[in-house]
Amino acid sequence: MEELRAFLQEQAEGDLVSWRHQVAAADRFELSLAEVETAILEAGLLPARYQRNRRMISTQQQLQLFGSKVAVVGCGGLGGYILEQLARLGVGHIVAIDPDIFEENNLNRQLLSSLANLGRPKAELAAERIAEINPAVTLRPVKGAFTKSNGGELFAGADCVVDAVDNVTARLELEEVCGELNIPLVHGAIAGWYGHVATVYPGDNTLRKIYRHWSGGKGVEQQLGNPSFTPAMAASLEVGEVCKVLLGQGALLRNRKLSFNLLDMEVDEVPL
Amino acid sequence: MQVTIKLFATFREGRFAVDKREYTQGTKVGLIVDELDIPREQLGIVMVNSRHVDLDHKLQDGDTLALFPLVGGG
Predict the structure, then answer these.
(1) How far apart are CA A119 and CA A141, in angstroms?
(2) Which domains does chain B have, with CATH numbers?
(3) Residue B10 carries which DSSP code?
């Protein structure tokens, strides 16, 4: 692959390789865009799309993100924004899981929904969207629900799982399965103006603590619904946590949850 | 005895954000939840002085009770 490396070095402006040259390299050397992206990063070069990342994410760390795998459970309100941000961040392998199709009542908040997409599977739209943004990212769409029995297969090789589901039962099962598989779980939940986020490592049992008074059924989101901005807020906080989990950087939201109230503009840290 | 009650998110609607109230010694958390007309199935986090408690926890003078609704949407 010396030839590929020489080609990339030759095309690079400074250490930046443009998308056009990444595509040209893939054609010329009969490689996938993902293989070329790995080669670019391994050569200490940077795909030009990431140049605004670089003050906070080094080329070495960008390679680490590209080699990472994240499973996103749910492609709705939270999931749409999470998938978008993971792909733009440069996480190389994403599993997008959702059994549902888009309906009209999703249009007020779910990033992957559009008039043209009504009736189509959410996971399928996730794949199309990510292919438009960053074709170097490998996205596996799963048109089905996460269950305790398929978790092992869905999360195989994952470095992190992201909770973007819409019910407490699935969340508690996610915590259990991720605990067994020894995978960190980033949790987020929303209702109306309100939401919270927490990061759970195996054995923390954070969600069992958050939902210790749960007696079945939905939370207050059932009365409140969800607007456009609350999922985006919770999703962004979740992806910030995923980025830190993958890079082993910063202070994680472990054994505590960050609750936000966008109506009164208050943020509370709750110890868990 | 005096207990400071802090309500969060939807629990504030038609109630208050923070209030200090008088109760008889040993009043249980569940009684205050019921008195505030908060449906128990809507309860998320329940804390006394930043420690998680159950509804049969007995309050002491000077305690701060914090109640968050259950949030589970996505």
Answers:
(1) 16
(2) 2-69 (3.10.20.30)
(3) G
* Averaged pLDDT, B17-33: 97
Question: Tokens representing B32?
Answer: 């205050």
Retrieve residue A64's tokens: 């680490």
d(CA B73, CA A78): 9
CB spacing of B74 vs A212 below 8 angstroms: no
Please determine, for residue B50, whether its predicted confidence score (pLDDT) is greater than 90.
Answer: yes
Q: Does the interface predicted TM-score (ipTM) exceed 0.90?
A: yes
Put simply, whether B47 touches A (Cβ < 8 Å) is yes
Q: Find the CB nearest A191 among B40, B47, B71.
A: B71
pLDDT greater than 90 at residue A49: yes
Structure tokens, A114: 């559009």
- A267 touches B at CB < 8 Å: no
Q: Chain A partners of B69 at a C-beta cutoff of 8 Å?
A: 191, 194, 219-220
Residue B62, Cβ density class (10 Å: 0-12 exposed, 13-18 middle, ≥19 buried): exposed
Asked if residues A186 and A160 have their Cβ atoms less than 8 Å apart, the reply is: yes
Nearest CA in chain A to B68: A259
Judged by CB atoms closer than 8 Å, whether chains meet at A189 and B10 is answered as no
N-terminal to C-terminal alpha carbon distance within chain B: 41
For domain A67-271, which architecture applies?
A: 3-Layer(aba) Sandwich (3.40)
CA–CA distance, A248 with A252 (Å, rounded to integer):
9
Chain-chain contact of B70 with A213 (C-beta, under 8 angstroms): yes
Tell me how far the alpha carbon of residue A228 is from its chain's centroid. 18
Is residue A97 within 8 Å of A71, Cβ to Cβ? yes
Percent residues over pLDDT 70 in chain A = 100
Give the type of residue at A87: A
Q: Quick check: pTM over 0.95?
A: yes
